[in-house]
Amino acid sequence: MVASTQSLEELCINSIRFLAIDAVEKANSGHPGLPMGAAPMAFVLWDRFLRFNPKNQGWFNRDRFVLSAGHGSMLQYALLYLTGYDGMTLDDIKQFRQWGSRTPGHPEDFETAGVEVTTGPLGQGISNAVGIAAAEAHLAARFNKPDFPIIDHYTYVIASDGDLMEGVASEACSLAGHWGLGKLIVLYDDNLISLDGETNLAFTEDVGKRYEAYGWHVQFVADGNTDLDAIHRAIEAARAETDRPSLIKVRTIIGYGSPHKANSHKAHGEPLGPDEVKATRENLGWQYEPFVIPEEALNHFRKAIERGVKWEEKWSKLYASYREKHPEEAATLERMLSPKLPNGWDKCLPTYTPEDKAEATRDHSGKCLNAIAEIIPELFGGSADLSGSNKTILKSSGNFQKGHYENRNLWFGVREHGMGAICNGIAGHGGLIPYCSTFLTFTDYMRGAIRISNLSRAGVLYIMTHDSIALGEDGPTHQSIEHFASLRTIPELVVIRPADGNETSGAYKVAIEHRGGPTLIGLSRQKLPNLAGTSIEGVTKGAYILSDSEGTPDLILIGTGSETQLCVKAAEKLRGEGKKVRVVSMPCWELFDLQSDQYRESVLPKAVKKRISVEAGSTFGWCRYTGDEGIVIGIDRFGASAPGNVCLEKFGFTVDNVVAKAEQLLD
Cβ neighbours of residue 153 under 8 Å, at least 6 residues apart? Predict the structure, then answer.
């Protein structure tokens, strides 16, 4: 076979393959096997079904495509270039995996136009897609009207064996089946090869039956290498199945066309090598130089531009009529899709005085959440089977379930990792502010999703309760020790520990307005007094002076969260002894570090060396604020099963211990 005798479809499919081969070879790094094997299914999907406009990647009603098998990123980059996406050039393809390029090793939505979500860690992308499909279902149920299906798009995924091995995918896909997300269609690249070798080394289950048990519609395409019509029919059948998500198992050969590495793990995660590239070119009849695409193929792919413009124009006319007949709904939707919040929205946040009764900050959080939900209709989320403990139920809404997608309360079940990944997908879809919740200690189960939230700047709100040893009798398995220290090391994650009701309201002001990334709020189970001097504004600065003595202080006590009250009471005792003491509330390191040098000096002057920090958690990192001469009161061992007040006393979180440490430091 020679290039001139290939059909147009073969030319197009091989164009995808060889862009991937050549880019990986030039970079001397990457995964050529998946793009080579999955090119036929990707071509059928993008050429015959996927609705998108390469000239406007932000067209709201576009179909979403998620390459969950993110190691095969060159498959997506090739398609973006070939179909004419603005921002993807042949030079970008040639700079695959290089410094500053728009073609990183795994797809990143903030780097590359046309990439919907950041994928790479296996299982995350397919789980994000569940969130995208849930967002589409919710917004469609709320805003569509008879004869006006203004929100009506599909979510397509290409996933690998590795994706379906990961537990996070099982969690999310189980929920997708329960919710009946009929516009979610997953093409499973069933090539029987993983990085270490054949999948039968560790993966021999019947994936199709598992997904049927989840409530999915399952099909099998026996020849995903050449039978384009079978792929086409399977996608058509999946689109016709409106009550269930669909999994299409497509049997492919990894590294298809490579004479010596096809159907082998050697094609998975390394370049083919010059000799094998040459042999593959000969085997597939590809007579073109590296990065050269035949004109017939490129012209065919670029028809996507004309199709996309027409699709968007048709939708825009529909939406214009919708706006005319339903102006209130249109105005609400347009505001939700913009970064703008309702004017004065934060006036709904409750404020407190010291005379108000003591409450746990988790209870204050529940009040904030419900107050915000009345003003901000895009708030959408729930808890991992702990809504009663986390106080996350929106009382003004019903439950998001199959047939009731208009409701805003999501029930995630005991699926922490899937919950976080789904919320990343909701954020990636646009139009909604997702929140999710569990006990702080179980952020361990969802850390991968939290990390991706920050990397991809997804505005997810993480509401974490039971944030210390003070949760009590559940004991050390549930008591957070190292979690705040660990979470604070994640780049750009805003971690807030409010001390009382006012600071909890402040935490929500920060979180709702921080749309360029996630916010994690740590909340108490135990009741806390409302302290004099706390404020919403103070939280936005990360740390602020809560109380002070006249003149330069002898000592600064730095409290965070539930331990701030200990600093306040200790300061009162010390002042009675004639000491000049400043109390600083520091709910958020990250926000404080963003303040000006002048402001930070005004709160923690360098001249005052004697400082004590108090947090019922790991001491790690606090020395950056206490300095070499300061003391860090914390806990660097696991907790214990006992009433919360007993745990606090036994571990030294008492006013008397803070006073004793202060006197030791001052002496």
Answer: 51, 61, 62, 63, 64, 136, 183
SS3 606: coil
Q: Identical fold at 3-308 and 542-666?
A: yes
Domain boundaries, the chain: 3-308, 345-528, 542-666
Give, as one character, the DSSP assignment of residue 148.
B
The pLDDT of residue 293 is 98
Please check whether residue 95 is in contact with residue 391, taking contact to mean a CB–CB distance below 8 angstroms: no
pLDDT computed for residue 3 by the predictor: 42
Largest Cα–Cα distance in the chain? 95
The C-alpha atoms of residue 437 and residue 452 are separated, in whole angstroms, by: 17
The neighbouring-strand residues paired with 247 are 186, 218
Q: Say whether 400 sits in a helix, a strand or coil.
A: coil
**Residue 17 corresponds to which tokens in the numbers above?**
């393959």
Q: How far apart are the first and last CA of the chain?
A: 89
Predicted confidence at residue 5, as pLDDT, reads 76
Q: What are phi and psi of 97, to 5 degrees?
A: 65, 20
Quick one: how far is CA 193 from the chain centroid? Answer: 28
Quick check: 286 and 278 in contact, CB under 8 A? no
Distance CA(638)–CA(617), nearest Å, equals 10
* 416 CB neighbour count, 10 Å cutoff: 26
Residue 2 has a pLDDT of 40
Give dist(CA 439, CA 632) in Å, integer.
25
**Residue whose token pair is 């306040």:** 568
| pTM, entire model | 0.98
- Which one, of 624, 622, 614, 617, lies nearest residue 584 by Cα? 614
Spell out the CATH class of 542-666. Answer: alpha beta
Which one, of 100, 617, 169, 222, lies nearest residue 415 by Cα? 169
pLDDT of residue 667: 87
Residue 459: half-sphere exposure toward Cβ, Cα within 13 Å: 17
Which position has the token pair 């919740």?
437
Residues serving a catalytic function are: 416
What is the Cα–Cα distance from 10 to 15, expressed in whole angstroms? 8
Return the CATH number of 3-308, one of 2.60.40.10, 3.40.50.970, 3.90.1200.10, 3.40.50.720: 3.40.50.970
DSSP class of 356: S
Length of the chain: 667
Six token digits for residue 341: 């919040």
The b/e string for 25-60 (b: 16+ C-beta within 10 A; e otherwise) is bbbeebbbbbbbbbbbbbbbbbbebbbbbbeebebb
CATH number of 345-528: 3.40.50.970
Mark the ranges of the chain whose per-residue pLDDT is less than 70. 1-4
The pLDDT score that the predictor gives to residue 578 is 96
Q: Exposed, middle or buried, 144 (CB in 10 Å: 0-12/13-18/19+)?
A: middle
CA distance 65 to 155: 6
Sign of the torsion angle spanned by Cα atoms 413, 419, 422, 423? positive
Q: Encoding tokens for residue 423? A: 């919320």
In eight-state DSSP terms, residue 63 is P
CA-based nearest residue to 365, from 517, 496, 546, 513: 496
Rg (CA), the chain: 28
